[in-house]
Amino acid sequence: MKQWTWLALAGLLTTLSCGSDEAVQPTSDYADAWVGEYEGTGNFVLSNGVSGEGRPVTISIVRVTPKEVTVTATLVYGEGRNDFIQAIDILQPNDPEQITLEVRYLNAKTVYAFTQEEGTITGSIATSSLRLGGTWGQDQIMTAIEAVRQ
User: Fold this and answer.
1) CA 54 to CA 46: how far, in whole Å?
2) Which residues partner with 76 through β-bridges?
3) Which residues of the chain fall short of a pLDDT of 70?
4) What is the pLDDT of residue 97?
5) 63 in Cβ contact with 69 (< 8 Å)
6) Which of 14, 16, 34, 42 is most buried, judged by most C-beta within 10 A?
7) Gap between the Cα atoms of 11 and 19, Å rounded
8) What DSSP letter does each residue of 37-102 carry, written as one string?
9) What confidence tens digit (pLDDT) does each residue in 70-111 have?
């Protein structure tokens, strides 16, 4: 029984001594700088070769936490019910004036490249998926986005 007590005490002391003595620096809260509803235009390219310029774009950015936002971007490229491109992700902005982030899922990734100046977002969103053989193929790209906060 005495042996188990010493082992428990040794385990407790080992556990308490683990870890760094340095405090972790908190990251800045940039979510609020991006929150808003934006409307404008953008260009698009689809994997089937269809492309176009100057199509309507809406971007909705909603604060989830002080550090994270949900971005919903929709570009309408035609008159049909399903003629739109949409990207929805939760992002943690790394700057109040610029977002350059890649969001990965199992076999898909979306790259956001936004800059913001005086309530106007400019940039692009590219969505890719993993193809057979391990290469990434572009599915849809929204480029030359210019959307103004409403």
Assistant:
1) 15
2) 84
3) 1-2, 4, 6-27
4) 94
5) yes
6) 42
7) 14
8) EEEEEEEEEETTS-EEEEEEEEEEEEESSSS-EEEEEEEE-SSSTT-EEEEEEEE--SSSSEEEEE
9) 999 999 999 899 999 999 999 999 899 999 999 998 899 999
> What pLDDT was estimated at residue 9?
64
Contact between 86 and 71 under an 8 Å Cβ cutoff? The reply is no
- 134 contacts: CB under 8 Å, gap ≥ 6: none
What lies within 8 Å, CB to CB, of 70 at 6+ separation is 60, 61, 62, 64, 88, 89, 90, 91
C-alpha pair distances (Å), 92 with each of 10, 103, 105: 41, 10, 16
Which residue in the block uniquely carries the two structure tokens 């080992």?
14
d(CA 42, CA 118): 18
What backbone torsions phi and psi does residue 15 show, to the nearest 5 degrees? -65, -45
Backbone angles phi, psi at 103, to 5 degrees: -110, 125
The pair of structure tokens assigned to 55 is 């199509």
What's this model's pTM, rounded to 2 decimal places?
0.78
